[in-house]
Amino acid sequence: MRKFVRSICLASALSLLAGCQTAYYSAMEQVGIHKRDILVDRVEDARESQEDAQEQFRDALEQFRSVVSFDGGELDTLYNRLQGEYDDSVAAAEDVSARIRKVEQVSEDLFEEWEDELTKYSNRKLRDQSAAKLRTTKARYAELLRSLKKAEKRMPPVLSALQDNVLYLKHNLNARAVGSLKSEYRGIKSNIDLLIRDMEKAIADSDRFIKQMEQG
């Protein structure tokens, strides 16, 4: 019985969300902004979140380098700064993922609408041209999404490694602990370098997709 009630609640929630999204699209269309435009805007937002995340992960790496280069002073201060950079990195990663989900949502809605509208053509030539354009747009979007997802998948391992080292430092605030972390730096740097590289590609692919969409 409880499983049935949960299913009803979930269905109701999804229906409500769908209704809100439909209302949002309708309101935007009334001012001349269509799903295609919203997709471009959300890709731009995703690109900006990747740029911000790149900078944040660089800052976190620099702070970690400061910790392993510790040579006297207040170790508590270095720990607090590293903890702050880790927290900011988690927030940046969450923002990247949230932006990607928004891109996925509007792209799915756009392509579904486009497919449905193809059935409404009476002119076969125009329908075929529109169908060809849809296929091209889908292919370009698929390439973009692969880049976004690849960069996104790089973040959890980096965050996990940073968290491990932050916790270790917290539990062992001494020079010996810092010495133990030195061997971790190279691996974290390598993973962050790969993450930044993949984000650079995602940013470039975002720029290319935006340009293609704006050119029509």
Automatic annotation (TrEMBL):
InterPro entries: DUF2959 (IPR021342). Residues 36-63 form a coiled coil. The keyword DNA-binding does not apply. Residues 1-18 form the signal peptide. Keywords: Coiled coil, Signal. This is DNA repair protein.
